[in-house]
Amino acid sequence: MTPSSTLARRAAGARLAPWLGLVLLGLLMLGLALVTLAGQGGAAAAWRALFAVTPGDTASLVLHYAWWPRLAMALLAGGGLALAGVLMQQVLRNPLAAPTTLGVASGANLALMAASLMAPGLLVLGREWVALAGGALAMGLVMALAWRRRLAPLVVVLAGLVVNLYVGALALVLLLFHQEELKGLLIWGAGALAQDGWGDAAFLAPRLALGLLAALALLRPLRLLELDDASATSLGVSLKHLRLAALGLAIFLTASVISVVGIVGFIGLAAPNLVRLAGVRGLAARLLAATLLGALLLATTDLLLQGAGPWLPTLIPTGAATAALGAPLLLWLIPRLRLGDNAPPTAAPGLGPRHPAPARLAGGLALALVVALVVALCWGQGAQGWQWLTRWDVLEWRLPRLAAAAASGVLLALAGTLLQRLTANPMASPELLGISGGSAMALMAAIFLLPAPGNLALVAAGTLGALASLAVLVGINRRGGLRPERLLLTGVAITALFDAVRAMVLAGGDPRGQLILAWLSGSTYYVDAGSALAVSFLALLLGLATLPFARWLDILPLGAASSQALGIRLNRARLSLLLLVALLTACATLVVGPLSFVGLLAPHLARLLGFARARGQLVGAALLGALLMVLADWLGRQLLFPDEIPAGIVASLIGGSYFIWRLRRL
């Protein structure tokens, strides 16, 4: 056998391997289906029930109107989302583009929630059109934020992250005020595939077939997007119209799926990337293989959940389960991704304008904080309109929540400052790097698994969760030198995992879900005097504990070589600072939940005001963080009086607006 023939055989085997993998996955799905059907009369009875219901046979009725439609829906939804993911990744030249990472899914879901509450008549015209409008608006915002950077992959993903968080905060507001009305939508929105007939499958199938035909029609011009823009334009391609057409098609496919089954996480991200990593090269082959893989992945996951249902303590929607499985996949993909040189520009966090008298500036901020506390404590709306209140029975209710809000702002601001200086990344914060999400997951686990956990147990659990997130961040990115873009993408994955866990918890119907929901939204309503005193003491103690690290924080942004030359033991310094970040984040998350953006916003504002040195930035950021959270708590009480918007959501909307502004300036 000649070397050329050996190489040819190997190449042929490599081309066949992905398709053999699809066949094996299909056989696995078939095996799971047979196991599931064993308790419902067997495969033969199920096959007969597919075409007709046997009179008087309940099992046949269930198979015909529930089991088969559910399997069909899983195949259709998975295939449609995977096809949308391939189109997005091809158009944006971004392996992380997907309906869930670019805000399309969350935008469509918010539109459906809003229409259900405010304009239910729109749903009669067609749920897919409402979802299409919401998804298109979210995607349009992402594109607008990333356009100046020519749709650089990381900027697109960051824009998608902030749009997801922003839209998620708005959806959480609707859910808090209309929980009973949206209870069914909450389960559906987490990706529930349960069916009661063939109507939804009949609705979705022609739309996906039309989408596939349209994608095949765009195949030739889409191939040209693998070239650079200049080469594609020279061949007569209108890039603007092509991108609009392909992205519009992807949004239509996503909206069609979401309007029927809700948000199904990560299929649109996982299937195209797995196909590419398996060696499928041509665009036509990737479209076909990814569509088949997405269909099989979702159907297999759903069959696994059905089989494990009797042993699960609560209902787990299939969409949330796929997101929980997809987050580790994204973590695995991150070291293998090539993002090019399109990362956002970063600068050492210590650089910037320097105030000539930082102590005087800090004094001014402290005075502003005192004024804000007094105003938030005494002034607001009441039964007689706006009034200045000094009655103790009102103040004793407001004072603990304001103290807790201020203390949590201090904790998050300090954590953000430490992270930004440690990583030399001005976009680092506990919220964006997934540390708050990791802490929140551990806290939820403690609430559900421990009998009546106390504050000490919750702080310990939250700290362990934050440390676990930090371990994942460092473990995945240590070989790349903790590059900012890789850290941020790892945070995206951890945040996605937290979102999946949250969806499972809220969709399960557990009575503790209401308390979890209030806590996740960052409400200070339930804070009592003891809790406020404890978190205030922790904020003071941990704030003082950060000051001795000021020298390290001044030197670390200069780089590893300079830091070692100046006598810093890098491993010891990084470990100490990461432990402190974990404790700061856990204590803050316990009070105001994982949403806020204060950890991003406060250090930025401190640097812009002129706190250039680490010690000054720590003090300035702490004061600004407290001020932001006090204002957020006060605004939350006034905007929709007598209803309240939780302080965490208000802070996340303020911080998200800043992040949007920041992205526009990249």
Secondary-structure-based class equals mainly alpha
Major beta-sheet overview? 2 strands, antiparallel
Q: Which descriptor suits the 3D outline?
A: globular
Give the integer mean of the pLDDT values. Answer: 81
Radius of gyration: 26 Å
Number of helices: 28
Looking at this structure, what is the CATH superfamily of the largest domain?
Answer: ABC transporter involved in vitamin B12 uptake, BtuC
Kindly, what is the distance between the CA atoms of the first and last residues, rounded to a whole number of angstroms? 57 Å
Helix percentage range: over 70%
Order of helices and strands: HHHHHHHHHHHHHHHHEEHHHHHHHHHHHH
Report low-confidence residues grouped into runs of 5 or more.
341-348
Q: Indicate the CATH architecture of the largest domain.
A: Orthogonal Bundle
CATH class of the largest domain: Mainly Alpha
Per CATH, what is the topology of the largest domain? ABC transporter involved in vitamin B12 uptake, BtuC
> How many structural domains does the protein architecture include?
2
**Total beta strand runs:** 2
Largest sheet: spatial strand order: 1-2
| Beta-strand percentage range | under 5%
